[in-house]
Amino acid sequence: MNQTAPLWSPSAEEIAASPMTAFMALAAKASGKPIADYEALHAWSIDDREAFWSLVWDYCDVIGERGERTLIDGDMMPGARFFPDAKLNFAENLLRKTGGSDALVFRGEDKVERRLSWDELRALVSRLQQLFRAHGVKAGDRVAAMMPNMPETIACMLATASIGAIWSSCSPDFGEQGVLDRFGQIEPVLFIAPDGYWYAGKRIDVSAKIAAVLEKMPSVKAAFVVDYLGTANDVAGGIAKAEALDTALAPFAPASLQFERQAFDHPLYILFSSGTTGIPKCIVHSAGGALLQHVKEQRLHAGIGDGDRFFYFTTCGWMMWNWLVSGLASGATLLLYDGSPFYPNGNAIFDFAQAEKMTYFGTSAKFIDSVRKEGLRPIETHDLSSVRVISSTGSPLAPECFRFVYDGIKKDVHLASISGGTDIVSCFVLGVPIKPVWVGEIQGAGLGMAVDVWDDSGNPVRGEKGELVCTRAFPCMPVKFWADPDGSKYKAAYFDRFDNVWCHGDFAEWTEHGGLIIHGRSDATLNPGGVRIGTAEIYNQVEQMEEILEALCIGQTWDDDVRVVLFVRLAEGVVLDEALEKKIRTKIRTGASPRHVPARIVPVDDIPRTKSGKITELAVRDVVHGRPVKNKEALANPEALELYRDIAALQS
User: Which parts of the sequence belong to the AMP-dependent synthetase/ligase domain (predicted)?
Assistant: First the structure.
C-alpha cells in the first residue's frame, strides 16, 4: 500500500502528555539506557520481560502483594508463570474508586437510562457478595450469566470475582443449545438472566429459554432474574430455582466489601471458543493476567485514566465486554449500551457519545462501514469534541473506513484499530498514541507481546502475508482449558503448528511503517460483522432437520466483511425452495443466535472430506475465493471441490 502521508499524527503536546511517554521515561531509567521511541520501548519490553512487567505493575498501581519473583520458566509456552508469589483480587482493583461521580452510565436503546455512582456500585457489589455467599459460593465455583450489557451484569461479575469464584457470560440472544453448549460444560452453581431485553424497539421474552436451560443444568443451585422489562417477579415465579434478583437482595444491606486475594494465575473468567470443530472450548483466564494486560493496554495504549468516559459497543458474549469492564481499574466511567446500535436510527450511538461526553469510542469495523454506507456524517450532525480515541475491532477495518472516520466522523482523533481475541482476552496488536495512523494499518504490536509474522516453514516474513505468532510467553495466556486435564487440547489449539510459539490463526502482514495489516482468519472460524462464529454451532442446528443430510459452512469475503455461506446436501426428493430456506434460517436463529444465520444457502451434491472422514471447510473456502487448495491428497473425494467453483449464487 503506497502512502505518502499518514491520516493523523499526534501533536507534540499530545505526545508529551501521553502516559506512554511518561512510561517510556521510567523504562529508560529502569533499563539504564536511552529509550527514545516506541520501537525501542517495545524491544525492551520483549528483551527484559521481568523488568517490563514489574514496571507495569508499579506504574498502574496494581493492588496486591507482588512477591519476590516476576517470571519463572519464561522460555516455556505453555508453562511460563508470571508473578508466581503474588496475591491479588481482580474486583479489589476495579473498585478502588469511591464517591458520587458516575461509575456506570447505561442506555437500553431509548427505553431505559440509568446511572450508578462509584459508591452505589460498591454498595450493590457488597449486597451481591453477601447473597452469593449465603448460597454457598466459594473460590473456584462458577457463576454463569446470560445477560444484556447492563449495570447488574458488571456488579454480579465483581461480586463473583471478589469471592474468588469464576465468571462466565453470554448474551441473551443465544439459543437454548448455544447456552447449554457453553455453560453445561463448566457446571455453574448460580445462573443469572434477565426477564427479557430490548432489541430494535421490540420486547424479547426469554422466560421459556431460562426454564429450559435450568432444567438441563442440574449443577445450578439458584437462579436470579434481573429486572429489565419490569417483569422479573412474574418470570421468576414461573421457574423452579429462580428468584427475582431484587427480591433476593432485600435481606442484605450494604456492608464493608471483603476481597479474597488469590494467586496471580487464579481463574477469573471462562470464555468460549467458537465451536468450529465441536462444542466450544472453555478457555480459562487468570485474574492477574487479565488485570495486568488490560491496565497496560488501557493506560498506555489507549491513554485511559481517571475521569475518562469509556465506551465499547459489545455484548456479554464477546471478550470486548471483559476488556471494557477493566476500565474501572483506571478510574474511568463506563458507558454501557445494550440493544441495536441502529435503533431508532444510525445516530443512536453518536447521540450517546455527545450526551455523555464520551472520550473513548469503541466499536466494530462493521459498525463504521454501516454508518458509511448509510450516508451518515456525524462530523456534521454531532458535537464529538470530547472524543479522543475511536477504536475498531472484530474484523479488519477496510482502508475506505479508515478514511471515512476522518472524513465523516471526526478529523482530529486517534483511530486505534486493535486485534487480539477471546484466546488471550486482550490484544496482540493495537493503537500507539505517540505514532501516526496510516490507512489500513494497525499501528503496532502491544508492549510485552513478541508478535511476528511467519511463513509456513516458521521463517519471519516482511511485506507478505503469513501467520500471526507470538514467540515469547506473556501473562494473559490462558491458564488452561476447562475439562482438559492433560493440557492436550490447549496445546493443540495454539502450539501444534510451531513448537513453543503461539500461533494465533490470523493472516497478517508487517508494513513499511512497522504496523500490521490483519487479513482475516487462517482457520475455519467465521467472522461476520466482527463476531467470531463456529461452524459446528450451525451444523448442530441444521443437521437436526430431516430435509438436510449434512452441511458445510464457510465465511466468504464480501463487501469488506465476511458473510456466512451454508452449503447443504439435501435428502432425496427435497428441493431448496423459499419455504425451506426460511425454515433453516429460523432453526439457526432460534437454536444458535441471529449472528449465526447464513447470508446464502446453497444446495450441493457432495461435501469434500478428509480420509479420516472430517469435512474440509478450509479447502472449500479456498475454492470459493479462487485460491489454490493445499493438501488435496488428504481428501477422500477431491473431485467434490469442483462443485464449489464459480457458483453463481455467490457472485451477488
Answer: 96-470
Q: What is the pLDDT of residues 570-593, one digit of tens each?
A: 999 999 999 999 999 999 999 888
Take residue 446 and report the three cell numbers written for it: 502491544
Which residues lie across from 389 on neighbouring strands?
Answer: 360, 414
Range of the domain at 234: 102-260
Q: What is the mean pLDDT of residues 375-383?
A: 97
Total count of domains within the chain: 3
Q: Confidence class of residue 456 from pLDDT cuts 50, 70 and 90?
A: confident
pLDDT digits (tens, 9 = 90+) for 477-491: 999 999 999 999 999
Name the pairing type of β-strands 71-72 and 309-312: unpaired
Neighbours of 509 (CB within 10 A): 19
Least confident interval from 78-87, 152-161, 514-523, 616-625: 514-523
Do the beta carbons of residue 335 and residue 310 sit within 8 Å? yes
User: Do 378 and 455 belong together in one domain?
Assistant: yes
Domain with residue 599: its CATH number is: 3.30.300.30
Same domain, 303 and 178: no
| Ordered DSSP codes for 478-546 | -SEETT-TTSHHHHHHHTSSSTTSEEEEEEEEE-TTS-EEEEEESSS-B-GGG--B-HHHHHHHHTTST
Instruction: Give CA 590 to chain center in angstroms.
Output: 22
pLDDT band for position 276 (cuts 50, 70, 90): very low
Q: Judge whether 304 lies within some domain.
A: yes
Q: Do 637 and 547 fall within a single domain?
A: yes
**Would residue 5 count as lying in a domain?**
no
Which pLDDT score is estimated for 532?
65
Domain boundary among 260, 284, 319: 260
* 523 Cβ contact partners less than 8 Å away, ≥ 6 residues apart: 276, 505, 618
Whether 579 and 601 share a structural domain: yes
Q: Is residue 319 part of a domain?
A: yes
Q: How many CB atoms lie within 10 A of CB 413?
A: 18
In a domain, 83, yes or no: yes
Q: What is the mean pLDDT of the chain?
A: 93
- Angle, in degrees to the nearest 10, between helices 49-59 and 38-47: 110
Cβ atoms of residues 115 and 104 within 8 Å: yes
Our CA angle for 460, 465, 471, nearest 5°, is 35
Residue 368 to residue 402: CA distance in whole angstroms: 9
**Cell 465441536 appears where?**
278
Residues across the chain: 652
Please check whether residues 482 and 542 belong to one and the same domain.
Answer: no
Residue whose C-alpha cell reads 514489574 in the numeric block: 54
